[in-house]
Design brief:
By secondary structure, the chain is mainly β. The chain has 1 helix and 23 strands. The chain starts with 5 loop residues before the first strand and ends with a helix.
Length: about 375
């Protein structure tokens, strides 16, 4: 899906072929929809292009942000020429970075005004709206609902560039590499747009490539859980990636929490992992994505990856009355045998080597399975 793309919905004013009187100002309004995955902010403009008219047609800036999936009425005021005959002007949208885009399948077709200037048969009607107005649309759905009493401890979408990233054992910085990107509205294999997606793009890497993202250290408390959605990116029809999650404590013990193969089947996998077993421990999460053979089409999405925590109310301390001191007879305790101390087993940190070998075995198994 393109970052910047519009869809023509309808002409709000001045349909094509309208007969208008020349020499006066008219306002053309289109209704369009943002069908890209980037927000149109107030630095976006509507500007005239490929026009031979000598009439000055200044660009018009948007007056409000337009989110992906929202519609907007774009309007331009134009002084019509006095000369009779066909009159046409084309407009395109321009992003804040200077990218020119429009409507149509490729997002490169213009919006236009096509009228006939005829002073005798004109049907001009007054226009009231002179600036873009945003039509309210249904909000983009969240993948996980934050329930009352629950709050976000770590938002990995916001912390993406704080991770340690590597591709095929070579480290890289996220802001310097096209392998990953954050999209505030991300579209997945089932055609649904969700908020806050991290896109992992392995499509231009060598076969059997593996990307790993390791978080900063996190303190785990009782009731914590890690949630995220995992799926293939919209349009990545050849997507086939093995996704794995490991938690490693500061003492070197590693636990494999989740492993699943992702394919373009219209299904989004839900990761909802109770972290209570790590209560009181500090560690890092490592997210791994491994291509199962050829990487063409291997583009996956992590949707709203977060650690959530349930807030519990502070217990109320009730002041109890002090007991009255009374005289009690002295008793001589009977001798009791001393309990024999049973040595507690010494916890042994799981060796990361065997776990890594196991994960590598799983990856190779899937790769061999899908290469046949």
């Amino acid at each position: 899906m393109l970052c910047n793309k519009a869809q023509f919905i309808k002409d709000v004013t001045i349909p094509d072929g309208s007969i208008l009187r020349g020499g006066i100002r008219e306002t053309k309004i289109w209704e369009v929809k943002n069908v890209g995955n980037c927000v149109w902010n107030k630095n976006y403009k509507l500007k005239a292009v490929n026009t031979t008219t000598t009439i000055n047609v200044p660009p018009v800036s948007l007056t409000k942000d337009v989110l992906p999936g929202e519609t907007v009425q774009l309007s331009v005021a134009i002084d019509l020429p006095t000369q009779e005959g066909s009159f046409e002007v084309n407009w395109m949208l321009e992003s804040e970075l200077g990218e020119i885009f429009g409507v149509g399948d490729s997002g490169k077709s213009p919006l236009w005004l096509k009228v006939i200037i005829n002073n005798a048969d004109a049907t001009n009607t007054p226009i009231i709206s002179l600036s873009p107005t945003v039509t309210e649309m249904a909000p983009t759905p969240q993948f996980f609902e934050i329930k009352p009493g629950t709050f976000i401890v770590n938002d990995f979408y916001l912390e993406t560039c704080d991770f340690e990233w590597s591709i095929n054992n070579t480290s890289f910085q996220c802001e310097e590499n096209s392998l990953i990107r954050r999209e505030p509205i991300v579209f997945t294999e089932n055609g649904t747009g969700f908020e806050n997606g991290i896109v992992i793009d392995l499509s231009n890497q060598s076969s059997n490539s593996t990307i790993i993202a390791t978080t900063n250290s996190i303190d785990i408390e009782a009731g914590d859980k890690l949630v995220m959605g995992v799926g293939c990116y919209d349009g990545a029809l050849e997507c086939s990636v093995l996704v794995n999650l490991v938690f490693t404590t500061t003492d070197g013990a590693s636990s494999n929490l989740w492993t699943i193969g992702e394919f373009y089947d219209g299904q989004i996998s839900v990761m909802d992992i109770d972290l209570s077993q790590f209560t009181g421990k500090t560690g890092t999460f490592s997210f791994t994505g491994s291509s199962l053979g050829q990487t063409q089409g291997d583009v996956i999405v992590w949707i709203e990856p977060r650690v959530l925590r349930s807030s519990s109310p502070t217990p109320t301390v009730t002041q109890l009355p002090m007991p009255t001191s009374t005289s009690t007879p002295t008793t001589v305790p009977s001798p009791q045998p001393s309990p024999t101390a049973t040595p507690a087993p010494t916890p042994v940190a799981t060796d990361q080597g065997p776990l890594a070998e196991f994960i590598e075995f799983i990856i190779e198994y899937f790769r061999n399975l899908f290469s046949n």
